[in-house]
Structures are given as structure tokens and as C-alpha cells.
Amino acid sequence: MPDYQAPLRDLRFVMDEMLDYPSHYARIGKGDDASPDIVGAILEEGGRFAREVLLPLNRSGDHEGCHLEGGEVRTPKGFKQAYAHYVEGGWPGLSSDPDHGGQGLPASLGMALSEMICSSNLAWGMYPGLSHGAADALHQHGSDEQKATYLTKLVEGIWTGTMCLTEPHCGTDLGLIKTRATPDGEGAYRITGTKIFISAGEHDLAENIVHLVLAKLPDAPEGSKGISLFVVPKFLPDAEGNPGERNGVTCGSLEHKMGIHANATCVMNFDEATGFLVGAPNKGLACMFTMMNVARIGVGVQGLGLMEASFQNSLAYARDRLQMRALSGPRAPDKPADPIIVHPDVRRMLLTQKALAEGGRMLVMYAAQLVDITEHGSDAAERERAETLLSLLTPIVKAFLTELGFEATNEGMQIFGGHGFVQEWGMEQFVRDARITRLYEGTTGIQALDLLGRKVLMSQGETLKMFTKEIHKFCQAEADNAELKAFIEPLARLNGEWGELTMAIGMKAMQDREEVGAASVDYLLYSGYVTLAYLWARAARVSAQALASNDGESAFYRAKLDTARFYFQRLLPRTRGHVEMIRAGGASLMALSAEDFGLGFEI
Amino acid sequence: MPDYQAPLRDLRFVMDEMLDYPSHYARIGKGDDASPDIVGAILEEGGRFAREVLLPLNRSGDHEGCHLEGGEVRTPKGFKQAYAHYVEGGWPGLSSDPDHGGQGLPASLGMALSEMICSSNLAWGMYPGLSHGAADALHQHGSDEQKATYLTKLVEGIWTGTMCLTEPHCGTDLGLIKTRATPDGEGAYRITGTKIFISAGEHDLAENIVHLVLAKLPDAPEGSKGISLFVVPKFLPDAEGNPGERNGVTCGSLEHKMGIHANATCVMNFDEATGFLVGAPNKGLACMFTMMNVARIGVGVQGLGLMEASFQNSLAYARDRLQMRALSGPRAPDKPADPIIVHPDVRRMLLTQKALAEGGRMLVMYAAQLVDITEHGSDAAERERAETLLSLLTPIVKAFLTELGFEATNEGMQIFGGHGFVQEWGMEQFVRDARITRLYEGTTGIQALDLLGRKVLMSQGETLKMFTKEIHKFCQAEADNAELKAFIEPLARLNGEWGELTMAIGMKAMQDREEVGAASVDYLLYSGYVTLAYLWARAARVSAQALASNDGESAFYRAKLDTARFYFQRLLPRTRGHVEMIRAGGASLMALSAEDFGLGFEI
């Protein structure tokens, strides 16, 4: 059974040494609430909760799964108690508005904790996880009455939330939704339709569930401009705000899935359910994007959490498992064979996991600072800059960390050899759970279109320039640092190439819009590798400085430098392939007609 | 539920048009047995069996799994009947020696059929699949008496076989095995020990199971030079050769696995079981390699089969599923949205599957000709050449087609969006089933060491040169073919680079043996991409010729050329990353000490 330790030392490195969180928190007016001591204590306590409460339920939850009985969903053994524990501990509202029951700590702290939850029990973590998005949407778009009724309960975790978007015939293309909302004449609406893939749509952890539902008003314009957002509680709140009458929303069935078995993925039937409009009519998609952007970063954190969990366990196995001798001669001559960590290819897999998990953590905590600034930044220009940069990084965080998260969990499984395929070891569960992260909240393909089409090209490259300028400045500042040459030179080269590549795609796209789609996923992966190279170069700088100042923990900083070198030498070269594929353009993708794809087997 | 059609047209292209199987069969003296008509009829009938008998049991078998009850394994519903059907049809001995009940058709034909079985039901296919290796080992190394007793039964499929190698503490490192064989004084041995991961170790499909078991004699030398091979039947044959007394070998438990649920993966306990020595004492590993080489190519075919199955179903979905409009404007304006096959990134995923499945088929059937020649070639020099080339290609077939098979099945799942994660669609089963192929019969890492260390470097590059010379000749012959320029030029360049890269690694390895392991997996993948480029270039040549001669089916040949172009433009550039990573060497892999890997989380 897998073990897990919260990576507290590494978080300290990223937050304190690399990204100077103490100053950051001071700048956004959270220096007192989120002092280094408090942050340290919260992370430590969160790590303990993850390890002691959630981790023991991960394998058993996967095995048991959820069960639908008489319309009610029974979550696996222990899940309800763990959730109660979580609510008692005050975790749900950690980074929520104090006006609505939250503790007002910065969002970034919640994201660091979220990584731990995802590492220890992704399926469990999705129950409270979905509430955040729902709370955010109500916080930003709900009426005062809606906030009073629903928000505090969500923040305190007494109730949980969902996002009801997808329908059987449409996921990406929400303009096609068929769920209808009819005014009931008393200010509310009757919601009717079927939603699928509703995570935590029904469960036994909380006394009420607050569904945020996309539906169409009778007079709605066609397509995505005719979508409105509604809040539809499972139980309609009574006069005291407690769960009252059962609403017309029920779980029709549970999906049988490849992974996250312990999370209830529900078909939700809305049958004249009472709902209340959130925000303006026909502006639902914009409101929903509030939730989706939060959720997308959250899914990137899931990828990170699973990488870390897989890495820790494959490392333990690689140290323990004896098999074959090192090619250059025995390393453990007293044992029947050497531990497999001596073999270069096992090290390649371990270092891939390590470099991606630690680099992913830098990326998440870098983005987390931007989230903090958008929420609490005192300066409007600074807030705007953070928002723009965050909009650029969101699809990268989501898609890059989940694509690479899948790879890294697979490397972890591979290190176990045939044992990796056996459920008891827990390594294959990380792979199965990681697989969904490439799909939900917008597939990698959708994220890539968002990045290249909406974020980069629609802004004429300005959004990207904001980031490449920051990288450029960093490279210039370190240009004479001989110790960092192996990082700064390739980074500066790639940073320049990123701009050129973007320009080249933009020019082609003016002739043919399909060139955007043809380049998009390679472009996203390329962008992810360069972004991580920037962060690894910064980590290398911090580590080199720490070693020079000889403050102790030299092994830790040397390991960072070694991992940075591995990243630059053995992962970053993947950009070469992506560049060539992007430059090849879309012609070879578009040539074949849909009919001719199957000529090898269709009779 | 997935559908499947045997790719008969594509097989005809590969076998008849590209690799000239009719002449090949004539040359190895099988022209009459394996005439084009007979081959066509067998493939068609095999495709029907796969589709009508095996395919309907694939999802249900995955869902039901195997059950161990009172020491007996119950396979999923329908498996036993399907196996009886298979035996009645005379399929098991298709390419076996007629002296032992086989039909004497070439091995290549069996491999083409094997692809279909793997596409339709991998877990089922493993039951008869394991018998081939066991039969081969007995055929080559067994005594006349052993052949008389076991071989015909295996060939006819009345009994099935296993390979019992792995033990709890060792898989790759078979020198560590603990299973003991003690002479019983009457010419037989008492076998005692525990074997794990024994596919088809126990089941209800056949009346007897013939285990081929690695064990150590009392006086055996240490390590891999002290391993002997034994045949250990589940039931000891009586005087008439029918199953008699129950032998001391039992199934202790079944593994719970990520995939291939319908195949029984057994812990086998040997408790003073009666066994008979196969071949010479202490030469068991060499005998076992007979089985393993066959099995390794067989696993590559599994990767191929799963790619094809996934591709066919994702293609159907991509044509059917309506979502979003094409970036360049509506393609199906009469429908609410366009079928997703209009989107370039969906096409990229489909073409990746198509190019890898069709290219993989070329590789398998190319290797299959070599297998035929090693078995039936009339000329000793030709046989030796085929053996050498096959030894080079075996790890590529195994590891490249399974690594890429996993990728391709994941692409298929990705095309389904969130639905891909739902079991009912069957796409995630292809992924789970494909995952084991990267692990068993030697992980990708082990195949890579075999390729680079044993096959390439140990022969001073001579083995590789045999193949690159063939590619070089092809490139020279087509150097003036303007139509093929886009294929021949990059292929010739890569072919030259392959040799240089090998030389560079060889030089480094002379200084430090660890450089072999550091380069190995990147080298294997690089080799796979170049090998497939060679075969795709040959396919392009055949297709261009067919189009020029205007014999009809122009859509088929144009599709081949389009797919070849896609392969060269959008997959082959991956070699760029691998070259850079190989050239970077192993320093960044070896720097970190085993202790320092975990400093981010270990307290």
C-alpha cells in the first residue's frame, strides 16, 4: 500500500526561497494572517490530515467505489467520517471570504493544501473540491440573498456544490445544451433536463448539495449566447435556511469509470426542479467560466499531486528492490543483487517524476501568487497584469501538468515492473486516476486551443510577450553568471524561439484558420516545457546562491541543481520535436477525407 | 460497445504489394500450402472468428474477470466455448510442424491472425498464445518422448502451456530464482517453489496444462548459469497419454490487475511436483529464450492489435460525434455542429493511431518474413542473416510497438473526451490492457538494454549495419525518384545518423558502461521511429507506383501516401529530442545519490 509524506521541505523551498511568499503575502495585505509560522503550521497540519485521514481510504475507496441505492449515493467506508473531520477542522473555508464564514487566508495556501489532498486521495478530494468553484461563482455573481442562503454553508462545508454543464450530446460545445428553465411566475424557474458527468452530484457526505446548472430560458438566443446559470439545491432551504423540501433533481445513475471510483460521477435528472437565476439572463457562460478557470487550475494541481504520490512510492521501491548488478560493477556486493536505483534507466524514470513534480509545484505556486494578486492586489495595474498572465498560464497549468502527470504516474508504475500492474501496490491506481485529468474541465485539445487561439493569437501575442519579457529580464540579469550558463543560455534561446514560433503560426493562421488547431497541442506542450525551464532556472539560481553562502543543507541544494540539469538535458530537448512538428504545419493533417480514413479495414 | 473489422485490405497491401509474400512463400517452399487464395481465405475466416466469437466476449470478460474456486479457475462466461470453437477450427496448430499435428503453414500467417485475436480480445488470446512458446521450446529442446507426450496435445490445443519464470523476488534477474528440482531417482525430478505472474497458469479451457518451469538442480552453479528447464504437467499423463494423476502444482491465488482481467494471472505453487528435464542440465535459460523471443514478438503484436482496435472505434466516434464548428467555417451546416473529425487536433490523434497501427503492421509482417526464413529458409547464409536481423528487430518490435501502442490507445480514448473514461465505451479497456504490454516479457528498459547492449554494441555495430545497409540501398535506388523525395531524403539522413549515434554511444560506453543504460530507451525509441520511417517510405513507393499505373483503388493509395506524409512530418520529428537526449549522456542521471532523491519530502 502506498505511503505519502507532504513535501514540506520542497514547499518551503518553492514558497519561501524561490518565490518569496512572505513578501508576497505582505504586499497583498495578508502578512499577518499568513505569517511564515502560521503557513508552516497549516501546511504541516494539512500534510498530517492527508497522510493520516485520507491516505488510508484511497485504495479501499477505489476498490469499494460508490453505490446508488434508492436514489441515494453511498460513498466508500470512511469517506463520510473523513469529511466530517475536514469540516470540523475548518479546512473548507480556509481561503474564503471572512464575510461568508471563511478564514480569509490567501488562495495560494489552499492550493498548496490541495496538492496534498490530491496526492493522498484524489477521489475524496473532489467532493470538497467542487464546492470551491460553486462558492466562487456565487461569490462573484450571486445576489445578496443567494449569498446569504448558500455561500456560508458552502464555505463551511456543511453543504457541497457541483457544476452541472455537460449533457449527453454536448460537453465542449455548451451552446448545444437542451436543459430548459421556465419562469414559475414567482421569481424562480423550473429546470428540466439531463446533465451527465456530474462529479459529487449525489453523495452522503453533506446534508445538502448546491447544483450550479447551465440551462436555457424560453426566449434565449441560439448557441452559447443563450445560456443562463441557475442555482438548484437538492433540498430547498426552509425559512431558517435549513434543508427543507426535496427538489426535483435526482441522480439517475452512476458512471462506471476507469478511475476515481470513489467519487460519484452522476447522471443528474432535473425534472421541473426549482432553480434561481444567478447573474444576468443569458450570461451564464461567463459566470461559469469563473468556476471553470478555478477548476482548471485545480485539475493541474491534481496532476501535480498524483506525480508526487507516484514518485515517492517508486523511489521507495527503487531503493528496496534488488535486481541485477550495475553495468559498471556491483554496488551492493553483500546483497544478492543491487537495488534497482543504481540502473541509469530507472534513474531516468525517477528523475523524470522528480523534475516534473518539483517543477510542477513551482508552476502551481507561481500561478497561485497570480491568483492571490487578482483577488487581493492593491494596485489595479498589478491586478490586471496578474489576470492576464494567469489567463495565459491557466491552460498550461491544466493541460501540461495533467499530460505530464499521466506520464509521470506511468513511469512510477513502470519502475515496479510487473508488480506495477497489480492493484495491491497502488501504482496503477495513480495512473487510472490521473487519466481523467487529461479529459475533464476541457480536454488537452481544448486547453491548447484556448492557449494558442484565445490567449496568444487573439491578443496579437501581447499576452505571451508579458511572460517572455519576464523570462528575458531574468536571462539578462543572469547573463554573466557563469555557474548558471547551462541553464540561462538554452532558456534565452528557447524564449526567443517561443516568440518566433508564435509569429510563424500567426502568419499561417491568417491564411488558414485550421493552422491554429494543427499547431495547438504541440504549441501547448512546447510552452509548458519552456515555462518549466524558466522556473527550473530560477530554482537553480536560488540553489547556487544557497550553496555559495554555505548556510547548510548543501545536499538539498545540490539535489536541486542536479535535478535542474536533468530537466535541461533530458526533458527539455523534447521541444525539438514539437518545433519541427509545428513548423511542418497542418497540411498532412487535413489531406485525408473522413471517408478515406478507414480504407484499410472497411469493406 | 466497440466494433472490429479485420484490416484485410491493409494486410493485403502489406503482404502482397509491399513485402511480396507470394514470392516469399514460394522461396521458403510454402508456395503451395500458402497460396494467395488459401492465405486470403484463412485471414478472412480468422477475421470472422475474431469479430463474431471473440469480440463479443471482450467487454464482458473484462467485467467478469476470473475466479478461483477450490483451487480451480473459472474463466469468464463464453471463454470455454470460444476456445472449443478455436480448437475445432484447427487454429492452434496452424503454423506448427505437421509431424506433431500442425498444419505446417508459415509462422507469418499465424502472426497476422494473432493481430486479429489481440484486437478483438487480448485476454482470451493469451490462453492459446502461451501454448505457442511452450510448444516451440519442446519442439526445439524436448526429447522425442517429451514431444510424443506433450507436443501434439499442445499443437492441437487439447492442452495449453505456460512459461513459469518469475518468482516474488525476481523477474528480470532470473539468476536469483529459488525454485528447486531434486532428482527422484527414477529419472524425473521433484520441483518445489513459488512462481508468480503465470499467465493462464490455471483455467478451465483445456483438460491439461503443461508448465515449462525454470528451477535449480542441487549442484547447480550460482546465478543464471545454474538454471534448468523442466516440463511439469498439471495432470501426469497416463500410459495412454491421457491426463492421469494430479501433479503437485496448484494455483495459490489470482492477481488483481489493472487490465487483462479475463486472463488468469496465477501464483503457482510447486510442492514436490513431478517434472522432467528439458534439454541439458543448467542450460535452461537458453531454452527459455526460445520461448521468450517468440513471446516478445507476440507482445509487440498485442500492441499492434490494440492500436488497430482503438483506432477503428475512435474513427467511428469522430465521424459520428457532433461538437463545435470547424475553425474555418461550418462543414455540416445542416447539423447542429460538425463531426469532430473536421478538427485538426482530432485528426492528429486519429492519424497518429493510423500511422502507428499501419506502420506497426508493416514492421510485424517484415519481422514475420524473417521468422519464416529462420524456420524454412533453404540457404544457410540466408537463414543466418534472417536470424541476425530478427535478433535486432525483436526488442524494437516488442518495446516500440507496446510503448506506442499505449500512446495510440490513449489517443483513441482522448478522442472520446469524457466518454472515453467510461467503461461502457470500451476505449479505456484498450488502455488498461495495453499497459501490461510495456511490462511483461521484459520491460521496455530491458528490451532497450538488449537492443543497444547485446545486439548492437556487442556485435561492434555489425548487426545494425546489416539493417542500415538495406535501408541505404533502398534510399540509393530511389534517390532520383522526385515523387519520393520527401521520404527518401530524411530517411537517408536519419539512417546515417543512426550509425553515427551508435558509434558515439559505443565510444562513451568504453569509458563508462553506465552510458549504455543512460542512452538505451531513447536509442530504442529512436531506432523504432527510423525503422518505421523505412517501412513507410517503402509503402509510399508502392503506393506512388500503384497510382501511376492507374490500376484503380486510387483513394486507398492516396490515403497511404497521406498517412506516410503525416508520419514523416508529425511523428518522425520526435527523433530530434531523442538524439539530443542521447548526446547529453548519462551524467545528469548518475549525479544524485540514492539518499538525496527524497530530500523534498523525507524528514
From TrEMBL, chains A, B:
SUPFAM superfamilies reported in the protein's UniProt record: Acyl-CoA dehydrogenase C-terminal domain-like, Acyl-CoA dehydrogenase NM domain-like
One annotated GO molecular function: flavin adenine dinucleotide binding
Annotated Acetyl-CoA dehydrogenase-like C-terminal domain residues: 467-592
Keywords of this entry: FAD, Flavoprotein, Oxidoreductase
Sequence ranges assigned to domain Acyl-CoA dehydrogenase/oxidase N-terminal in this UniProt record: 80-157
Gene3D superfamilies cross-referenced by the UniProt entry: Acyl-CoA dehydrogenase/oxidase, N-terminal domain (1.10.540.10), Butyryl-CoA Dehydrogenase, subunit A, domain 2 (2.40.110.10), Butyryl-CoA Dehydrogenase, subunit A, domain 3 (1.20.140.10)
Cofactor(s), by name: FAD
EC top class named in words: oxidoreductase
Domain Acyl-CoA oxidase/dehydrogenase middle: 163-272
Signal peptide residue numbers: none
Keyword match Flavoprotein: yes
Residues annotated as domain Acyl-CoA dehydrogenase/oxidase C-terminal: 282-450
Catalytic activity: 3-(methylsulfanyl)propanoyl-CoA + oxidized [electron-transfer flavoprotein] + H(+) = 3-(methylsulfanyl)acryloyl-CoA + reduced [electron-transfer flavoprotein]
Entry EC number(s): 1.3.99.41
Similarity remark: Belongs to the acyl-CoA dehydrogenase family.
Protein name: 3-methylmercaptopropionyl-CoA dehydrogenase
